Amino acid sequence: MTATHTPRAHTARRQWAQGLTVFAAVMLMIAGLLDIFRGIMGIAEDDVFVATRNYVFEFDLTGWGWIHVILGAVAVIVSLGLFQAAMWARVIGVGIAGLIIIANFLDLPYYPVWSIVMIAMSGFIIWALCVARQDVTADSFEQPPRNV
């Protein structure tokens, strides 16, 4: 056996993949919760948001609020599936994180710094979900066998 095919290397890759999946699940849950709170602020028409004029993608603040609440709720549900290492959650998680990036890009003039933070956070979520191979995470979150 080569050094990359030893049981120890396989276990290390599995632990790395499981760690990335947990990272993505936690980050997606946090992003979802923060998006829900941001949406509630928009629906309540809070004074936190910047009023912009002549913006191409201009929506009513309440409309943006509902978009963020819906994306956040779906993100929280998908993150629960990621904790179970479900393949559907990985695929939908990448899609939801992409939609969060798009929504925050379009929402950039209203709340610029936070939009950039959410874009970066969603980028890390997409990276973590795409870099871990499914065959390595297929064992879900089982404990690796112990050497006796």
UniProtKB/TrEMBL annotation:
The keyword Membrane applies. The chain crosses the membrane at residues 20-44, 64-83, 88-106, 112-132. InterPro entries: DUF7144. Keywords: Membrane, Transmembrane, Transmembrane helix. Residues 21-133 form the DUF7144 domain. It comes from the Bacteria. This is DUF7144 domain-containing protein. It comes from Streptomyces luteolifulvus.
